[in-house]
Amino acid sequence: MSTSLDPEVRELRTDPDRPPVAVEQRHRVTTREKAVFGVIAVLGAIGWIMLAIVRGEQVNTVWFVVAAVATYLIAFRFYARLIEYKVLQPRDTRATPAEELENGKDFMPTDRRVLYGHHFAAVAGAGPLVGPVLAAQMGYLPGTLWIIIGVVFAGAVQDYMVLHLSIRRRGRSLGQMARDELGAVGGIAAILGVLSIMLILIAVLGIVVIGALAGSPWGVFSIAMTIPIALFMGVYLRYLRPGAVNEVSVIGVVLLVLAIVAGGWVAEHPTLSDTFTLEPITLAWLLIAYGFAASVLPVWLLLAPRDYLSTFMKIGTIVLLAVGILIARPVAQMPAVTEFASTGTGPAFAGSLFPFLFITIACGALSGFHALVSSGTTPKLIEKESQARLIGYGGMLTESFVAIMALVAAVSIDQHIYFAMNAPVALTGGEPGSAADYVNGLGLLSPGGTPIPPIDPSVLQNAAEGVGEETIISRTGGAPTLAFGMSEVMSAFGGESMKSFWYHFAVMFEALFILTTVDAGTRVARFMFSDSIGNVPGMSRFKDPSWRVGAWICSLIVVAGWGSILVMGILDPLGGIYTLFPLFGIANQLLAAIALTVVTAVLVKQGKVRWAWVPGIPLVWDLVVTMSASYQKIFSDNPKIGYFAQRDAFVTARDAGEVLAPAKSAADMDKIIFNSLVQGTLSIVFAVLVIIVVAAAAVVVVKALRAGGLPTTEDEDVPSRIFAPAGFVPTPAEKRVLEQWQEAGLDPSPAASRGHH
């Protein structure tokens, strides 16, 4: 039923006695909008021309910001809108799982601004920070192209479409949707692949957090304080002032800034700094306890407000970095493409440009982990189907911008310092003298192609002193390089004397960034695990994710899974994480292949074959990349790339009584031999599971094409009884509907529809 005075706008009601629950608007492109997007397109084109074609001796990093932002705005306005109108066709008269199954624990309609914050915080982990920094060794251009083009056509498409599918299936997890849509064989392979990869991803992220926080009282104190602040915000929004999102945001941000400043005082205090300086193993146990608590407590109490709070910090810092770049206008020190792109012998990671660049930069362009959040917490919290474009597609564009900022921070550092930080100790020797000799011997070239003059060891020593560290040599893993690059750019605010502050601020920022992925990841893994057990005869009770007994059992099992890998990684410096990190990139992209396979199969089953290319093209690309990388990791005879080749090299050396780096003893040699066997075996298992999923989907697609479509497992429509705007800012038509709710003395938010007020 629709009513409206304006012929361009239809107000839709599901109950004649209540105000409208949805607004349908025909979007007419005004002259002003054409002019604005014309200007954006021209600016973007100039940015791309400066980066890719003109180049020359000096490329200003401002062009990275211009090219990225212009591309994102055009993609969100036109490509995402095309997918919305032609492919997904959301209906706001239909209740989302959050409204239909609302229980105040896992299902709960959540203000779109808070949910955008939660979703962005949950998907944006270590990947967009670390991957681009490591990939910078191949030059700035390949990474920039993949981050920006990849997100528009692959990453954001996956996140948006998986979110929409899950909303239409009562918030079911990716593994369960695969089982429902692709049949038992493909579904079981998907569930096994998704769950095993998930546990590895959470453990890897946990190690990165602990690496950033160990020995950092500032970081530990500030991050610990975000928990009571989030609990306060949750209670405030739920009971004290429901709906007062802007108010609680201001309070939360003020408290967060106080916690960060206080962290600096704690670090300098003689007794408090000792209290908050924790050993890695202590941090690991605290992280495990936190992960469990965040996954079983009601989502409104800790998880959603804490992620929303950290989003202010995340987006605020990235915007500050972008402003710093616009003010300081640093020049790219790295060439557009370096020799390491073709030789595959880079110090940061071994392997050629194709396929390894596309796996190293996973999360800024395409990340399978996001499909788990898009079918985990977010569909159980979203108020309206039309909000999925902003949250799914828009959230991923924001993450891609984070990746571009990380890349800019890395390529604007002096190349000698960059390679000294990212080459392992075995190459640099760990001392300024030996490290300077190593980087001077790399034969580095400037962006214009001329050899760079050698550096003195004092350059490396002074760089460390400038950020208040004893050394910056061989601080591998990407995070310290990003912190160093950020401190260089951010010294535009406050000068050189502030470098140490910005460096330590950036380290804490990275830990906060990644921690939000650990807590949301644990909750998502719990949903997936309970979905999976629910398929076993006699265990159907587990299908209800909010059954408390099941939730506690599943959370304990999931936390024990990633926690044991985490503790193993902390206690065994050559095992655990270092074994699993190289797998992290490939496993994450294989997850994306599973997600895109499910989406493509569902579109064909729905009879939308002419739009199957939208997820289909990124799927084919992702499969080519991941299968090429898996093949090389399994079969390459280069011990730096192939797992089994590495194992053979260490076995030969051990039998000859030699000790190869990074091992320091015969016992270390045995560990590396065992670890490389585990890595190689897991690589084979993951690749085989994905091939099974794709094969099962191909069978379903062929059947659907022959039958002209097949039924899908989309749930029946349930009429909505609430109203919420689709974007951050309500349109004039949406404002009019909100006024109708006020005039009727009703609250359009879900708390009112339950009669709590």
Automatic annotation (TrEMBL):
GO terms for cellular component: plasma membrane. Pfam families: CstA. Belongs to the peptide transporter carbon starvation (CstA) (TC 2.A.114) family. Residues 60-629 form the CstA N-terminal domain. GO terms for biological process: cellular response to starvation. The keyword Protein transport does not apply. It is a multi-pass membrane protein. This is Carbon starvation protein CstA. Its main location: membrane. Keywords: Cell membrane, Membrane, Transmembrane, Transmembrane helix, Transport. It is found in: Cell membrane. The chain crosses the membrane at residues 35-55, 61-80, 115-138, 144-163, 184-212, 218-236, 248-267, 282-303, 315-332, 352-373, 393-413, 501-518, 549-571, 577-604, 677-702.
